[in-house]
Amino acid sequence: MKLKIDVTNVAFMVTGAPEAKEYDGKQQVDRETNALKWVTQLLALEQGENGQGEIIRVVTAGEMPKLSQTQPVIPVDLEAIPWSQNGKSGVAYKAAVIKPKPAK
Question: Whole-prediction pTM value?
């Protein structure tokens, strides 16, 4: 099951440079497009009085994102994908693309 995430009231900032998503020493590729996969670490900070922050790792496919640390960004079509395997569970995050946030 994939869950679309409403990012309207969430600010995102790059906390780790994009890197190749690897498994057994090889870069993974998207099953549908055969494009290379990348993972970017982001701080997701809820806006408002009681806003909380969380570090998430977001996977994209295609060209390596050209992003730098502390850069404000917008993950487009962000999805949360719950997983469970070998007694462990968590949430994976995937986006169509991570775009730099336009300056105001």
Answer: 0.90
CATH number at residue 48: 2.40.50.140
**Which domain does 91 fall in, by range?**
3-100
* DSSP per-residue letters across the chain: --EE---TTEEEEEEEEEEE-EETTEE-B-TTT-PBEEEEEEEEEE-STT--EEEEEEEEESSPP---TT-EEEEET-EEEEEEETTEEEEEEE-SEEEEPPP-
pLDDT in tens for each of the 104 residues of the chain?
789 999 999 999 999 989 999 999 999 999 989 999 999 999 999 987 777 899 999 999 999 999 999 999 999 999 999 999 999 999 999 999 999 998 87
